[in-house]
């Protein structure tokens, strides 16, 4: 005889959810169709916020630590991995979908919104501590990528549970609806970051505002639409939690300008005069008054040091000016310092400057310290400035138009500059050189980074030009992430500059006997720099191309 089953005991009630099982329909204050629309709208906004957090971490890490390819790879790979872990962990919150989603969004808004400020603070204030703090920004970057990924990954399973509680449908249809809202939101967030948030608000304020939007939308969705699924205790805890997150984000937004000034002083010293975010990069001018030398930083990297910029620019320009030099093209050089050296030579009829960042040229014209340092070079009527990408501009330039081309561009080790040190780029330069014309390239340090230096030289040769490498000593203004972060890093920092002089015929680094006398560079030091560079040669290096960069 088969005995009848006894009824199952009632399930114990979760402390965060109101009576009702996970399979029971949600008790909504609106019609089910409206409820589904509101959930999908929330998915859209949360997806946009999530992608902004990812892009903000990539952008700030690239600015602070350089090498955007590496930073993007680290952030995205760690975040995608963490999203999978977060999705698995969210399965345990199925019975508490409404409360769980509200808590996840509040935590995501706080972590994502404050991530940029925290990363910048660690970089600015602990960079010179040394020891375990030397890798502090990188460790924090991984930690934030992991945390944001875990929280983003937990969203979809919880949202899937919530939307199914509104109206049951097949799993494929529910996933399609959620995915569509998620992907469209990611598109909007991905476009809003570079075209709206970054130029209008900056990285820090943009991240904080995104966190505030995330908090409001997540809290409103749960407390407004699914409030009947929550106990009174859960509603109060979520309300207080979201209010605290908004208070933290609002306070940080109010203090963000003071925070940025303090962080810049910690990084660059107390004599920062100008700090602007152009459409291309951050430009900081420090010193230049009261007898202090002017230092120029681009995206946290020391680009020009007033202590010995003359040594660099004389070595860059004067050897290339030996020979015909009526028509000169300068690629980069928006600070006007290379233009200053060119104009010291007689017989110069025209100088064309192709600079990507118009704000740098404006500072070179108007900043008292910088314009004095470049001797008001941009006020000379022979100088014509074009705001353009050097690569694109060369593609439309007149062939055989210039006697001298000076490549005064950021270092090849910086990802954004890689195409400006490619074989294709030097092929375009070769096309605009007149017969007997010369090209000179700043190729990074010789002694400490021989492989990069000789890769530049091999790439110039691969473009059909003959080369003569040389170097000179000085305080290196290269791609270190920040102004000399630790004593050990300063000790290891290169103290030389390397150059490659090139032409269709064998060039020879020498000074024009009829030209102006440089204040530092001599024929003897130039010859010594050529001999020292040749002793470091690495043979057999392949050229760097657009599709296979070697730097």
Automatic annotation (TrEMBL):
<comment type="subunit">
    <text>Homodimer or homotetramer.</text>
</comment>
<dbReference type="GO" id="GO:0010487">
    <property type="term" value="F:thermospermine synthase activity"/>
</dbReference>
<feature type="active site" description="Proton acceptor">
    <location>
        <position position="408"/>
    </location>
</feature>
<dbReference type="GO" id="GO:0004766">
    <property type="term" value="F:spermidine synthase activity"/>
</dbReference>
<feature type="transmembrane region" description="Helical">
    <location>
        <begin position="236"/>
        <end position="256"/>
    </location>
</feature>
<dbReference type="Pfam" id="PF01564">
    <property type="entry name" value="Spermine_synth"/>
</dbReference>
<feature type="region of interest" description="Disordered">
    <location>
        <begin position="1"/>
        <end position="25"/>
    </location>
</feature>
<feature type="binding site">
    <location>
        <position position="313"/>
    </location>
    <ligand>
        <name>spermidine</name>
    </ligand>
</feature>
<protein>
    <recommendedName>
        <fullName>Polyamine aminopropyltransferase</fullName>
        <ecNumber>2.5.1.16</ecNumber>
    </recommendedName>
</protein>
<keyword id="KW-0620">Polyamine biosynthesis</keyword>
<dbReference type="GO" id="GO:0005886">
    <property type="term" value="C:plasma membrane"/>
</dbReference>
<keyword id="KW-0808">Transferase</keyword>
<feature type="transmembrane region" description="Helical">
    <location>
        <begin position="96"/>
        <end position="120"/>
    </location>
</feature>
<keyword id="KW-0472">Membrane</keyword>
<feature type="transmembrane region" description="Helical">
    <location>
        <begin position="140"/>
        <end position="159"/>
    </location>
</feature>
<dbReference type="InterPro" id="IPR036259">
    <property type="entry name" value="MFS_trans_sf"/>
</dbReference>
<dbReference type="InterPro" id="IPR001045">
    <property type="entry name" value="Spermi_synthase"/>
</dbReference>
<comment type="function">
    <text>Catalyzes the irreversible transfer of a propylamine group from the amino donor S-adenosylmethioninamine (decarboxy-AdoMet) to putrescine (1,4-diaminobutane) to yield spermidine.</text>
</comment>
<dbReference type="InterPro" id="IPR029063">
    <property type="entry name" value="SAM-dependent_MTases_sf"/>
</dbReference>
<dbReference type="GO" id="GO:0008295">
    <property type="term" value="P:spermidine biosynthetic process"/>
</dbReference>
<feature type="binding site">
    <location>
        <position position="355"/>
    </location>
    <ligand>
        <name>S-methyl-5'-thioadenosine</name>
    </ligand>
</feature>
<comment type="pathway">
    <text>Amine and polyamine biosynthesis; spermidine biosynthesis; spermidine from putrescine: step 1/1.</text>
</comment>
<dbReference type="InterPro" id="IPR030373">
    <property type="entry name" value="PABS_CS"/>
</dbReference>
<feature type="binding site">
    <location>
        <position position="335"/>
    </location>
    <ligand>
        <name>spermidine</name>
    </ligand>
</feature>
<feature type="transmembrane region" description="Helical">
    <location>
        <begin position="180"/>
        <end position="198"/>
    </location>
</feature>
<feature type="compositionally biased region" description="Pro residues">
    <location>
        <begin position="1"/>
        <end position="12"/>
    </location>
</feature>
<keyword id="KW-1003">Cell membrane</keyword>
<dbReference type="InterPro" id="IPR030374">
    <property type="entry name" value="PABS"/>
</dbReference>
<feature type="binding site">
    <location>
        <begin position="389"/>
        <end position="390"/>
    </location>
    <ligand>
        <name>S-methyl-5'-thioadenosine</name>
    </ligand>
</feature>
<keyword id="KW-0745">Spermidine biosynthesis</keyword>
<keyword id="KW-1133">Transmembrane helix</keyword>
<feature type="transmembrane region" description="Helical">
    <location>
        <begin position="69"/>
        <end position="89"/>
    </location>
</feature>
<comment type="similarity">
    <text>Belongs to the spermidine/spermine synthase family.</text>
</comment>
<keyword id="KW-0812">Transmembrane</keyword>
<feature type="transmembrane region" description="Helical">
    <location>
        <begin position="37"/>
        <end position="63"/>
    </location>
</feature>
<feature type="domain" description="PABS">
    <location>
        <begin position="247"/>
        <end position="504"/>
    </location>
</feature>
<feature type="transmembrane region" description="Helical">
    <location>
        <begin position="204"/>
        <end position="224"/>
    </location>
</feature>
């Amino acid at each position: 005889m088969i005995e009848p089953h006894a009824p199952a005991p009632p399930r114990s009630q979760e402390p965060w959810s109101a009576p009702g099982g996970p399979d029971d329909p949600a008790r909504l204050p609106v019609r089910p169709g409206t409820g589904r629309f509101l959930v999908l709208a929330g998915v859209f906004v949360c997806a946009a916020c999530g992608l902004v957090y990812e892009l903000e971490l990539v952008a700030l890490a690239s600015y602070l630590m350089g090498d955007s390819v590496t930073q993007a790879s680290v952030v995205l790979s760690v975040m995608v991995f963490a999203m999978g872990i977060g999705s698995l962990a969210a399965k345990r919150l199925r019975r508490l979908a409404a409360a769980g989603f509200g808590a996840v969004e509040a935590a995501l808004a706080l972590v994502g919104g404050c991530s940029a400020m925290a990363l910048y603070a660690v970089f600015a204030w602990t960079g010179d501590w040394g020891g375990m703090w030397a890798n502090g920004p990188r460790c924090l970057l991984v930690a934030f990528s992991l945390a944001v990924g875990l929280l983003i990954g937990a969203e979809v399973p919880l949202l899937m549970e919530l939307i199914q509680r509104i109206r049951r449908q097949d799993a494929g249809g529910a996933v399609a609806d959620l995915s569509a809202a998620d992907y469209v939101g990611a598109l909007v967030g991905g476009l809003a970051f570079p075209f709206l948030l970054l130029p209008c608000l900056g990285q820090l304020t943009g991240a904080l505002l995104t966190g505030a939007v995330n908090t409001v939308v997540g809290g409103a969705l749960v407390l407004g639409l699914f409030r009947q699924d929550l106990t009174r205790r859960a509603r109060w805890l979520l309300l207080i939690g979201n209010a605290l997150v908004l208070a933290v984000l609002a306070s940080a937004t109010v203090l963000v300008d003071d925070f940025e000034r303090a962080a810049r002083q910690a990084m660059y010293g107390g004599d920062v005069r100008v700090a602007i975010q152009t459409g291309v990069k951050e430009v900081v001018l420090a010193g230049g008054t009261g007898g202090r030398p002017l230092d120029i930083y681009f995206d946290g990297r020391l680009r020009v040091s007033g202590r010995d910029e003359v040594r660099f620019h004389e070595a860059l320009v004067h050897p290339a000016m030996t020979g015909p030099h009526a028509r000169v093209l300068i690629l980069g050089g928006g600070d006007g310092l290379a233009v200053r050296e060119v104009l010291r030579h007689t017989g110069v009829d025209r100088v064309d400057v192709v600079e990507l960042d118009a704000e740098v040229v404006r500072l070179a014209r108007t900043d008292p310290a910088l314009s004095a340092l470049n001797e008001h070079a941009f006020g000379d009527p022979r100088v014509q400035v074009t705001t353009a990408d050097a690569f694109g501009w060369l593609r439309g330039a007149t062939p055989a138009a210039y006697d001298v081309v000076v490549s005064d561009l950021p270092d090849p080790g910086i990802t954004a500059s890689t195409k400006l040190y490619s074989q294709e780029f030097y092929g375009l330069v070769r096309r605009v050189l007149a017969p007997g014309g010369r090209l000179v390239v700043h190729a990074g340090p010789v002694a400490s980074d021989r492989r990069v230096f000789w890769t530049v030289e091999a790439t110039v040769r691969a473009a059909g030009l003959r080369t003569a490498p040389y170097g000179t000593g000085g305080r290196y203004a290269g791609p270190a992430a920040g102004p000399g972060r630790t004593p050990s890093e300063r000790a290891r920092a290169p103290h030389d500059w390397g150059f490659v002089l090139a032409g269709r015929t064998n060039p020879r680094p020498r000074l024009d006997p009829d030209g102006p006398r440089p204040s530092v560079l001599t024929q003897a030091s130039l010859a010594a720099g050529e001999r020292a560079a040749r002793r470091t040669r690495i043979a057999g290096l392949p050229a760097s191309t657009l599709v296979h960069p070697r730097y």
